[in-house]
Every structure is written in structure tokens, then in C-alpha cells.
Write a structure and sequence with these properties.
Elements (H helix, E strand, L loop, with lengths): L26 H7 L8 H10 L1 H6 L4 H7 L2 H9 L1 H18 L10 E4 L15 H15 L4 E6 L7 E4 L5 E4 L11 E2 L9 E5 L4 E11 L2 E7 L7 H4 L10 H21 L6 E5 L6 H12 L4 H10 L1 E4 L10 E2 L1 H15 L3 H6 L11 E2 H7 L3 E4 L2 H11 L14 E2 L6 H4 L2 H11 L10 H4 L7 H31 L2 H10 L5 E6 L15 H8 L6 E6 L7 H14 L8 E4 L4 H10 L2 E4 L11 H7 L3 E5 L4 H4 L6 E3 L8 H24 L9 H14 L5 H44 L4 E7 L16 E6 L6 E12 L4 E9 L1 E6 L2 E6 L10 E9 L13 E3 L1
Parallel strand pairs: 1-2, 1-9, 2-8, 9-10, 10-13, 13-14, 15-16, 15-18, 16-17, 18-19, 19-20
Antiparallel strand pairs: 3-4, 5-7, 6-7, 7-8, 11-12, 21-22, 22-26, 23-24, 23-27, 25-26, 27-28
Length: 855
């Protein structure tokens, strides 16, 4: 036997968290640090900075990490500082007073499900707009005293950290989060052991820890599968946000939907309304169906009636390609055991996720969400219309304008995104109770009373803060990646607060058209290099690692920014996150947005900018379509001139250059003797006063209750009464109609196709008579004339109007209809007649979209 000189196997390294134990008098700080209330409370953040400024900066302004790293001598110093201790006591009392205000019991309770949440830069469980919107919504739920519980994932690696290579190529770095220094708390059982959630997958149990995030008054529960008792295959489910292949996406969406409902059940949480934030959460309905079938002994159709009545689906995607579609073999692998327990045939389940039942289409999570939710909505007025077009195939025989799909325009959480100095200004000039009624336009009009000088000082202060942030945070990275220190010095010299600074920061997807500004580099150079009117463009944003087009855009911008004529005039800031976003939306002068028309669902970064006195320059798309006010920003028209996108891009770029040259830059530099432009300040005041009140999450939350939550809770309550009596009654009615729908017979149809619109006479003239024998159909029937403009070249019918015939008498099963109404729209049109079942217990026609064209 040969004896080796050395031998060693590979160690298994495990985390151990070593941190300071705070003295009793400082324990309140731990409580505050573990509640994200500090994110939107300036005094709380100031306290953490005062404890140990250097350590606070070193930990990335993470209060939990700061407290764990406080040295003994520092804690003694704090305890001896009477002024600081007094501030701590005051902030803690403010915190407790906030938490002690009870939920508003006059409003329904909400369960909210989302794949991502952007709550704070230290908690990396978000990638972009969808997550930040969800995070803002939870904060507003807390401020508005809404009884809400939210569910998501605690990602070990979160979304990637972005760096740039020497040649400007994006590098995606996935850095593991240390859960021990995050503002989260693990749910423990009565024996102080971690609660384990067991989620039955098709061939195994997947285990998950449950973590609690306190967001003011409400709780967000996060699932984490990174447990040793799981296989490596399953530990990775919650590794990365939007990471992995389609099977991993399937596992994530299964866990969010099925596991999310099981999580709430395990914690004993029941809510009135269940809100799916995007189709990722669609499978919550599958698990709820199983619950009602197994635990309440309802039939599948009865269970579906109950689930639908309490469910809302919000879509954030404006194009079909942006939705999740799964191959039947993949979704069957995961869902078939659960569907067997529900007790319906597999093809029936597949059809619930298809535009065309019985086809070979992939399974769409969005279509399944639509079929299991009574209500659905887009996230801006324009996106609501786009969503109606996109989802029309789900309800054959109905036109987009007739669909129940509504909208609630996204808003932003003002206390999070307005800077501390802007909030101080608002509190001083609009009143300290302003936040309680922040969507009231009358209060915001007081902005007009603020002096021009004060507004300008505020704007210069915020620009200086942005420039300082850039110099402090990015110089080291630039020196690493750009090799020439002299170039960095030249770049820094060009960034000045008196320059017009324009920001473009968002996810780098090709439809965002970041390239538009660079269509004519010679013209752009002239704009940027005017010594009397300096202009600087700041870019930031991440491209998905699988999006080659988006990554190429970043690389191209970085390359242009290094050209001598653009050095310091065009700057790309890497690793766009919530900290950088706040500095940008408050520190630039103009927020630029140039999406391809109808592809911006809402967008909220421009709304954040407005709250800080930053003006918008954007295509009339998303929220700006309804938010734009003349004299309070600038807009590129919503209308397309060319079908060819390249031609449209060229036109939009030229329009953008012209607006900068002839309107925006001259306006900014029309300085008076005090060194600023009164006309520019006029724009700023009008933007804040007339646009800001309509784009807060306070208004957004109120809209969700007014348009969706209240009616869902009310109808759901009615269906559940007396052992689901009303739900069972409606199901019997639907089943009867469905089984006999083809039995009806048209006995008479007379209609006068040539009509004259007479505004004075003709009210008693009968234009049409129809007699229908409904045979053994028990339901009441409705009859309407649908008027369209039919284009035979495209085979499309454009909806013009509809009107209902009057039921004038019945004889047994025969229904006699008449109309004395003439067509309202002069011109040549096409018409047809549609029969549909009527029931006052239905929330809308799409709830039971049976119809029949007759002739």
C-alpha cells in the first residue's frame, strides 16, 4: 500500500451568523430595523445614520446589518448621548403609534400574490417595474389601513447585479443574499423550530421555509426552498428571479400558486378577495378549487363559481408574446395529480388555459387566470383597451369594447419616492396632514403658492445630490472599466448642476427604444456641445441575461458615450436599482421615455419624477397617455404615421431632436436675473399641481376598492351564504342553459335594413320584430342588434354600437321581441342579431358568455 503524503476531502461549509447583542435600551431599534416602515420614514433612517455613519455606509444603508455590527464602545457612546437617545425614543413612539392604528374594517381584506416585490434596495426580490409597483402597493396598503396579506418568494440570489466589461458588455453577477442580515423574520413553531411548508408536487413533496416581512402594518410571506431536505433540483426553485429554463419557471409558478394558498391556510389566514398580480400567480385558483371540492364538498362547477367570485387578475403585459405559455406535456407533468383530485377530465383543464378550446394551443396562465377570475384589469386606461383587444379571443362572439376587462392606472408610493427635502416642502406648504388625502387635487394646487425661487433652490439641491451620488458611487467602477483616468476626470468635469440633465433609466428591452436618441449622431453632437446651453444625458438599466438585443443596446450606448464629442455628455450608470432610481427620478430635469406605441402597459418611473419636480418627455403611451397636461411636460403623439417601424423610429427621432432644439433647451436656459427660467418653473409647478395627485398609490388603492374589491367581496359573500345556496342556484341555471342552448328556434325575423335617423319623429315606428321559441330553456333570453363596419379585405368587423330589443310578450316558450330604435350612427354599416341568456345574478356577460348569432 502506498501512503500519500497528504489527503483531504471537501468540506461542507455552512452559514453561521455572529452579531452583536444590543443593550435593552437600544432593542427598539431592532424592532424598527425589521419593519420596512423605515424605508418611507425619514426620521427613522436619520437615526440609523446617526448611530454610526461609516458603518451605515459600509453596510449599504442596511439597518439590520448596521445593528449587528455595532461595536461595544459605539453602543456605549450612543447610550451616553442623551440627545440621540431622546430621538430614538421619539421615533420609536411614532412607530408604535403608527402600528397601533387598526385596519379599516369597512373595507374587504385582500390576499395578494406576486412573483416579485420591490420594497427596499437591501431586499433583492425584485427586478423592475412589476416588483416595484407591488412593493409600493403593499406600502400603501399599510398607510391606508388595508387588511392585506401578501405572498411571494425569498430568492437566495435575487435578480442579478450588473457590471460592465471594458468594452461595455453587460455582466450579470448573481450574488447570494445573506438572510441573516435582511429585514426578515423566519416563522417559527411553538417549539421555536422553523415552520416547514409541505407542497405536494406531482411525484414528491417540496419543502419550504416561510419568512415574514413586516411592511408597516401588513405582512408579506416569502417561500424559500433552499433547505437541505430538498434535492438540489428543488432547492433552486427560489434561487433566482426569472432564472432557469421553462421547467424551472413552471416549478416557480406552481409553488407560488399552489404553495401560496397552502401557506395562507397553514398560517390560518383567510381573506375576502384574492388578487393575482400577473399570470404568474394563476394557479392559486387551482388550489382554491381543490379546497372547495375536498373541504366544502362542492362540485367542480360550484367551486369554480365561488372561486371566481372572489378573484381579481391584473395583467401588466401589453403583448401576447409577453405571457407565459406552457407545453401540454410540461404542465401535465406537474398539474395532472391535482386535477385528478379536483375531479375533471384533463382536456377540460387544458381548455381553461386556451383561447381556442379543443385546439393544440399551449396552456396560457393568463387565459387560465381570466377563466377563474370574475374581474380583470389592465394597469392604465390605454392598457385596458389594449388588454380588451388582446383577450377578446377568450370570449368568442363579443367585441373588445364589450368585455368586462377594466383598468386601474398604476401609481407610486409618494412617501417612498419623494425625497426627504421634497416631503419637507410639501408638509410645510401643503399641510402636515397632506399624506392622508394625497390624491386630493385641491390640496396640490397650493403648489402654485410656492415661490419660484424656492422651487428652483429645491431643484438645484436635488441635482447636486444626484451629482454627488454619481461621483461617490461610480468613479471606482469607471476607473476599473475604462482604463484612462484622464477620461474619467474629463467626464466628471462635464457633470454640472447648471446643465440641463435628461434621464433615461428603465429595463433595457428593445421596445423601450433607447436607441432613438442616437439615430443622428451629428445632430445629437450639436445639441450636446453648445457651450452656452450644456446638456447631459444619463442612462441606466439592465437587460435580461437572455435578451441579446437589450444587451446590444447597452453596449452601443456605452461605446457612443466614450466618443470624444460625447464624453461626459452621455453617461451610462451601471446596476440600476432602487437607490439609483430614487436619485435619478429626483435629480434630473427631464425624464425621457420613448416606447414603441401600445407596448408600455403603464410605466411608473415618470410618475416618481413628477413628485420631485422633474418634467416628462414621453410618447403618449401607458400612464402618460392620460396624464399628459399641456404646459406641464412634452409628448410625442400616440398616433403612428408609418406601419414600418424603422420609418416611425426615424420620424420620432427627428421630432425628439426638434423638440429639444426649439422648445425644451431654449425654455430651460431662458434665465432671468436670478439665474433661472421662470417659464421652466411654471412648467414644474403645473406638473406637480395638476398631474401628481392622480398618480399616487393612494388613488390607485381607492380605485381598486371602488372598481373591483368591493363588488367582489359583496358578491362572494352572497354566494357563500347558507352553505353556498346562491352559488349552487347559479350553477344549476348555467348547467341547464348550457345543456339546452342549441334547442332554441327562430320563428320570425323581420328588420328594416334601410333606416333614417329622425331626431323629431318616428318614435313609435317598429323597425324590427323577432319571435324565438326557446323550447325547454328555463332562462330568460335577451336579443340585440349589433352594428359593425365590416372590412372584407381584412375580414375584420369594427364594433359601432348595439341596442337591445324589447320583449313585448310571451306565449308559453315563445318570446316576442320588437325594437322602435333606429340606428344612431349615420352611414353604411353591417348588422347582425345576437341572442344571449339573461340572469340578474351574473356580474357581467363574460361570466357566462353563451351567445348565438341568428338570421
Amino acid at each position: 500500500m502506498i501512503i500519500k503524503t497528504s489527503y483531504s476531502n471537501t468540506p461542507v461549509w455552512r452559514d453561521v451568523y455572529v452579531h452583536s447583542i444590543l443593550p435593552e435600551k437600544l432593542r427598539p431599534l431592532e424592532e424598527i430595523a425589521h419593519n420596512l416602515w423605515w424605508v418611507w420614514n425619514d426620521e427613522a433612517r436619520d437615526i440609523f445614520e446617526l448611530l454610526d455613519y461609516e458603518e451605515y455606509e459600509r453596510t449599504g444603508k442596511n439597518p439590520v446589518a448596521l445593528l449587528q455590527n455595532l461595536k461595544t464602545e459605539k453602543t456605549e457612546e450612543i447610550l451616553q448621548n442623551e440627545e440621540l437617545m431622546s430621538k430614538i425614543d421619539r421615533v420609536y413612539q411614532s412607530y408604535k403609534d403608527y402600528l397601533n392604528v387598526p385596519f379599516d374594517n369597512n373595507r374587504p381584506s385582500i390576499a395578494y400574490f406576486s412573483m416579485e416585490y420591490g420594497l427596499a434596495h437591501v431586499l433583492k426580490i425584485y427586478s423592475g417595474g412589476l416588483g416595484v409597483l407591488a412593493g409600493d402597493y403593499l406600502k400603501e396598503a399599510s398607510d391606508s389601513r388595508v387588511d392585506m396579506s401578501a405572498v411571494g418568494f425569498l430568492y437566495r440570489h435575487g435578480y442579478f447585479t450588473q457590471t460592465l466589461s471594458m468594452d461595455g458588455q453587460q455582466i450579470a453577477n448573481y450574488e447570494a443574499q445573506n438572510f441573516g442580515i435582511l429585514p426578515i423574520t423566519q416563522i417559527m413553531d411553538e417549539n421555536n423550530k422553523p415552520v416547514i411548508l409541505e407542497v405536494p408536487f406531482h411525484d414528491r413533496i417540496v419543502y419550504s421555509h416561510i419568512w415574514e416581512v413586516s411592511v408597516g402594518r401588513i405582512k408579506l410571506y416569502l417561500m424559500d426552498t433552499d433547505l437541505e431536505r430538498n434535492s438540489e433540483y428543488d432547492r433552486s426553485i427560489t434561487s433566482q428571479l426569472y432564472g432557469g429554463d421553462w421547467e424551472n419557471r413552471m416549478k416557480q409558478e406552481y409553488l407560488l400558486g399552489i404553495g401560496g394558498i397552502l401557506l395562507l391556510q397553514k398560517l390560518g389566514i383567510k381573506k375576502d378577495v384574492y388578487h393575482m398580480n400577473e399570470g404568474h400567480a394563476a394557479l392559486i385558483s387551482a388550489q382554491r378549487l381543490l379546497h372547495y371540492v375536498q373541504e366544502e364538498n362542492l362540485s367542480f362547477n360550484e367551486a369554480l363559481e365561488v372561486v371566481r367570485a372572489s378573484t381579481l387578475y391584473t395583467v401588466h403585459t401589453p403583448v401576447p408574446a409577453g405571457h407565459d405559455y406552457f407545453e401540454e406535456t410540461l404542465i401535465r407533468k406537474y398539474m395532472e395529480p391535482l386535477i385528478d383530485k379536483i375531479g375533471i377530465p384533463w382536456p377540460q383543464f387544458m381548455d381553461m388555459g386556451r383561447d381556442e378550446p379543443g385546439s393544440n394551443e399551449k396552456f396560457s396562465m393568463s387565459v387560465f387566470a381570466l377563466n377563474t377570475a370574475q374581474e380583470s384589469n389592465g394597469v392604465s386606461k390605454l392598457h385596458g383597451l389594449v388588454s380588451q383587444e388582446m383577450f377578446q379571443p377568450v370570449w368568442k362572439g363579443y367585441f373588445p369594447q364589450e368585455l368586462h376587462v377594466g383598468y386601474v392606472t398604476n401609481g407610486i408610493h409618494l412617501p417612498t419616492w419623494a425625497t426627504s427635502s421634497m416631503k419637507a416642502l410639501y408638509a410645510d406648504r401643503l399641510g402636515h396632514d397632506f399624506y392622508l388625502d394625497q390624491s386630493n387635487p385641491d390640496i396640490w394646487r397650493k403648489v402654485y403658492n410656492i415661490s419660484d425661487e424656492d422651487v428652483w433652490k429645491q431643484r438645484m439641491h436635488l441635482k447636486e445630490k444626484l451629482i454627488d451620488y454619481i461621483k461617490n458611487e461610480f468613479v471606482d467602477g469607471w476607473l476599473r472599466n475604462q482604463a484612462e483616468p484622464s477620461r474619467i476626470i474629463s467626464m466628471l468635469d462635464e457633470i454640472k448642476p447648471n446643465s440641463l440633465i435628461i434621464g433615461f433609466s428603465r429595463r433595457f428591452a428593445t421596445y423601450k427604444r433607447a436607441h432613438l436618441l442616437f439615430s443622428d449622431l451629428e445632430r445629437l453632437s450639436k445639441i450636446l456641445n453648445n457651450p452656452d446651453h450644456p446638456v447631459t444625458f444619463l442612462f441606466a438599466g439592465k437587460a435580461h441575461p437572455a435578451d441579446g438585443g437589450g444587451q446590444s443596446l447597452i453596449k452601443n450606448i456605452v461605446e457612443i458615450s466614450r466618443m470624444p464629442e460625447f464624453l461626459g455628455k452621455i453617461i451610462f450608470l451601471e446596476n440600476y436599482d432602487m437607490r439609483l432610481a430614487k436619485r435619478l427620478v429626483s435629480g434630473v430635469d427631464i425624464w425621457l421615455n420613448t416606447p414603441t406605441r401600445l407596448q408600455e402597459a403603464s410605466g411608473t418611473s415618470g410618475e416618481k419624477a413628477i413628485m420631485n419636480g422633474v418634467l416628462n418627455l414621453s410618447v403618449l403611451d401607458g400612464w402618460w397617455f392620460e396624464g399628459y397636461v399641456e404646459g406641464a411636460g412634452w409628448a410625442l403623439t400616440a398616433k403612428r404615421t408609418y406601419e414600418n417601424q424603422s420609418f416611425q423610429d426615424e420620424l420620432d427621432a427627428s421630432t425628439l431632436y426638434t423638440m429639444l432644439e426649439s422648445e425644451i433647451i431654449p425654455l430651460y436656459y431662458a434665465h432671468n436675473s436670478n439665474g433661472f427660467s421662470p417659464e421652466w418653473i411654471k412648467y414644474v409647478k403645473k406638473s406637480i399641481a395638476e398631474i401628481a395627485p392622480h398618480y399616487t398609490t393612494k388613488r390607485m388603492m381607492d380605485d381598486y376598492f371602488d372598481r373591483f374589491y368591493n363588488k367582489l367581496a359583496n358578491r362572494s359573500g352572497q354566494l357563500r351564504e347558507n352553505n353556498f345556496a346562491k352559488a349552487k342556484e347559479i350553477v344549476r341555471w348555467k348547467e341547464d342553459v348550457a345543456s339546452k342552448w342549441d334547442n332554441m328556434e327562430v320563428l320570425k325575423l323581420e328588420f328594416e335594413p334601410v333606416q333614417e335617423v329622425d331626431i323629431n319623429n318616428g318614435k313609435d315606428k317598429v323597425y324590427g320584430e323577432v319571435v324565438i321559441d326557446k323550447k325547454d330553456i328555463a332562462a330568460d333570453l335577451g336579443l340585440e342588434c349589433v352594428v359593425v363596419d365590416y372590412d372584407s379585405t381584412t375580414n375584420k368587423a369594427l364594433f359601432v354600437e348595439k341596442y337591445e330589443f324589447d320583449l313585448v310578450k310571451t306565449e308559453g316558450s315563445k318570446l316576442f321581441f320588437q325594437t322602435k330604435e333606429a340606428l344612431n350612427d349615420p352611414g353604411t354599416h353591417q348588422y347582425a342579431f345576437r341572442v344571449y341568456p339573461k340572469n340578474p345574478d351574473l356580474p357581467h356577460r363574460m361570466d357566462f358568455a353563451y351567445m348565438k348569432w341568428i338570421s
